[in-house]
Amino acid sequence: MSEPRPHAPSTWRVIWLIGKLSWMRLTNRWVRRRGAKPGERGATARKPTAGRLVIVFASVLFALQAVAGSTVLIQRLAVTAEQRAEPERVVLNESSWWLIAGVPEAEREQRFEQLVRNETLPIIDTTESEQRRLLLWRTFRARGLDGFRESRLPAVPLWPSRQIWYSDGDPLALLRPLALVALLLALAQSLQHVAGSDDDLSRVSASLEWLFTFPVPGRALFLARACSALFTGQLVWPLLFPFYAVAFVCSGCGLASVPLAVGAAAYQALLSGGLRVLLETALRRYLSLLWVARVQAALLSLSVVAMLGSIATAYSRHVGWTFDWTLHLPIWAFLLPPVLPLWLTVGGPCAAAAAAGALAFAALWLALCVWTAERMVRAGITSGGGPQSARRGALEPEARGHRLWGGVAYKELCAIFRDARLRAQTFVTPVLVFGMQFWLNPQLLGDITGGPRHVATAAFAVASFTLATGACTSLAMEGASLWMLYTAPQRLESLLFQKLRVWICVAYLFAGVVLALAWWRAPHLILPSLPYVALTLLGIFLYAVIALGIGSLGTDPLEPEPRRRVSVGSVYLFMLLSSLFAYSIYAPSLWTKLVQLVLSALLAFALWQKLRDHLPYLLDPTEAPPPQIGVSDGIIAALGFFVLQGVFAFWFNDSGPEGRTLLLAFVSAGVCVTSFALFALYRSGVPRVLRAVGLVRASEARQGRWLQLGLGLGAGLGAGAVALAYGLLLHRVSWLRDWAERESTVLPDFDSGSVPGWFVALGVFAAPLFEEFIFRGILYRGLRRSVDARRAVLASALVFALVHPVVAAPPVFVMALLAAAAYERTGWLVTPIAAHMSYNAIVLGSAYLF
User: Is residue 677 one of the residues assigned to a domain?
Assistant: First the structure.
């Protein structure tokens, strides 16, 4: 490789080709390209678009969040610098200043006392509320209103602007603290590009071997690989570019802010690209493969620490410590290569010198990295066996498959402790993530121990983070050995649940550590937090199943790059769903907690059902499971039905009386959900859609139409009799009557026991039609596909009762039981609709009796 072959492409041509290849590989994961014509190529793995859309959406949100965070950071640093410039007076924002200055002098002290007691006056550099009160009172009593000054900076910046930049007297006032954030961001981006890349450093990738077949010098290949970081750097454009753009806009660079930010981000990308070339070559050259994997795991953990440090600094309300720390640093500390782009905010000769210095350093750095890498591989490159090398122990006489932790569970446990990267991801990363939060925000532990619900929520949050990084990737960790699980004499989903046992224990371990720390800090919270802890432990188990389902469904085992096997959108989706479970911990009603638990269990069951359908086709690049109605279809239809009711209620709010609005919203939502569900099932290929949901009567039914209709009416009359007895009991027993009155505040208040016509149309006609289609036609059909009739009837009735008010739940549950049982017998949706109609008619008619 030392001498180019005849007619070899130039170095710049190689850089262009490899950069174009990197860009095409990146966009190929997000953009669906034109399909090949018949005969052009064979079948390849499916590329679903949903994951790419989620990734694009998450990247946009990440970039917008980076803009907002950078703006807030600069505003807080500017306010702190303003306060430091005039320490003899307390700087208040505009609203706080006029709360004091806008009242008469005679009432000023009383108003000030009220504002201090309510902690309404925010000031800078005070972390404790008691310190804030003392400083405010001491200043007010000593100097009165003269001890305060209104800030010249906007209080709540909505967008980066020149107004939030502060540089009076010292052009480096904001450069010093921003340099710390820039250094942490650059370090996180560089280490993430090196250690968090798609390829394991402990093996020479096939792409690198293929590159070395090019008839060009090795230095051209290494230089092209370093420059490809402009396209493959995961944090360059979603994080570094917004940070620099906000800094340049706020410092007054104007229209040049965007091109300057592009140059600064590209500069950081080239530095990280050179570092990757240098490290991946040196580590493979001088260390064993096992130690290479360990070093990569350590670098990945350091990148997480740097990232969290920069984010915590940006979003911390108390940034005065950055000034105190950076003021003691010598000037050469701000001339480090990652900080040079920030000197453009100063302007003048300093900015020009910094730009020239950055260009010179980037060129020298790339030259040094490329020259060193070329020297190390002048004798050629070799491939290693991978990081999973270990000595084999003696065969145990007792088979591990008969033990609780034997078989696949034992294999998963060994993989965690054997693979350095997986071990760091499982145990080190969560400790660093939350440890950094506690270190940068000492008040966080006090906030967690502020109540029993906070303790349980913190434990669930840590456990969910562990499941997101572990259980979601459980199937992807099998890699190329996944086919071996198909040879085991067990169903693949049962083997996956054996793997899940390990991650459940890991999640419980971290949750237990959080609980122990919180209870050690606040022993008086042990007993009050036990009910919420029990709810949390149950939620961890349910969301472990959800993590396994979402992660497995988002896994493409045919993807050659290990880091790309799991869709990032799947991990984001799990984190979003797990964050919603905190609502059940804080919900004051036991009924709401039960509803959340049942819905979570239903979601876990739906994902398990979908996973069972999907697993036999994992290794087939062209075939997919046969389309069938699933529980997930019923969940989506029910959720869409309730959401659309709110949307249409807001839309029809001004179109007439309240009753008409509710009726129009209910019917419109029902028509939309029914139409869309039928169309979606038809498009997915479900055979005989109308018959599958029960809208068309089976021709081979043993009962006649009138007998099936009579069966539904009989079920409704029986449920109505139960509802009448239940209503009589509520009105005869005083404490039940008081409970019903408290819980029935959400129901319409009918005058003189009369029921308006709109409510009759809603309850007797509209509700049975649409609710039975959703809960019996789709949800019950999905349940029935995986469980027997008794369990499906019970589960569908329970879910139907839970979406109703707690007062009406017992008789509604009985009606749903009878309606589902009748539907199981006839298979015709008219039967449960008749049961529902007759039941609602009896319940509404009872308004004249009670």
Answer: no
User: Can you spell out the DSSP letters for 777-833?
Assistant: IIIIHHHHTTS-HHHHHHHHHHHHHHTS-TTTHHHHHHHHHHHHHHHHHH--THHHH
The mean-pLDDT minimum among 433-447, 471-485, 547-561, 822-836 falls in 433-447
Nearest-5° angle of CA 16, CA 22, CA 24? 100
Same domain, yes or no, for 418 and 355?
no
Q: Is the pLDDT of residue 388 over 70?
A: no
Looking at the domain assignment, is residue 366 inside a domain? Answer: yes
Confidence of residue 314 (pLDDT cuts 50, 70, 90): low
Last residue of a domain, one of 133, 162, 191: 162
* Residue-level pLDDT at 818: 92
Residues 307, 435, single domain; the answer is no
Average pLDDT for 590-598:
81
d(CA 410, CA 394): 16
- Average pLDDT score over residue span 283-292: 78
Q: Kindly report, residue by residue over 52-108, the tens digit of the pLDDT.
A: 554 565 567 667 778 888 888 888 888 888 877 777 777 777 777 777 777 777 777
Closest alpha carbon to 509 in 537, 530, 477: 537
Residues 844, 787, single domain; the answer is yes
% helix, strand, coil for the chain, step of 5 = 75, 0, 25
Cβ(59)–Cβ(234) below 8 Å: no
Rounded Cα distance between 603 and 546, Å, is 7
Q: What is the number of domains present in the chain?
A: 4
pLDDT for the residue 540: 93
d(CA 781, CA 694): 9
Residues 325 and 441 occupy one common structural domain: no
Among 118, 142, 162, which residue terminates a domain? 162
Which tokens is 599 given?
A: 């819905």
Determine how many CB atoms are found less than 10 A away from the CB of residue 292.
24
Task: Answer left, alpha or beta for residue 386, where phi above 0 means left and psi between -120 and 50 means alpha.
Answer: left
Tell me how many degrees the CA angle 7-12-16 measures, rounded to the nearest 5. 105
Neighbouring C-beta atoms of residue 469, cutoff 10 Å: 19
- Residues of the chain with pLDDT > 90: what percent? 14
pLDDT recorded at residue 263: 94
Residues 177, 154 share a domain: no
Cα gap 393→410, rounded to integer Å: 14
Q: What is the pLDDT of residue 699?
A: 67
Query: Are the C-beta atoms of 55 and 568 separated by less than 8 Å?
Result: yes
Mean per-residue pLDDT over the chain, rounded: 77
Q: Six-digit token pair at 203?
A: 């093996």
- Per the domain annotation, does 7 fall within a domain? no
pLDDT at 391 over 60: no
Residues 370 and 478 in one domain: no
Residues 99 and 193 in one domain: no
Is a pLDDT exceeding 80 seen at residue 544?
Answer: yes
- The reported pLDDT for the residue numbered 121 is 60
Whose CA is closest to 211, among 268, 293, 272, 281?
281
Q: Take residue 340 and report the two structure tokens written for it.
A: 């040079």
Both tokens of 609, joined, read 């059902």
540 dihedral zone (left: phi>0; alpha: psi -120 to 50; beta): alpha
Residue 673 lies in a domain: no
Q: Locate 799 and state its tokens.
A: 């879910």
Residue 385 φ then ψ, to 5°:
-85, -10
Residues 146 and 220 in one domain: no
Pull the structure tokens for residue 45: 């793995």
Mean pLDDT of the region 688-700: 81
Residue 28 has pLDDT above 50, yes or no: yes
Residues with Cβ within 8 Å of 809's Cβ and at least 6 positions away in sequence, in order, are 591, 801, 802
The domain of 414 spans: 406-625
What gap in Å lies between CA 164 and CA 154, rounded to an integer? 7
The pLDDT confidence band at residue 732, using thresholds 50, 70 and 90, is confident
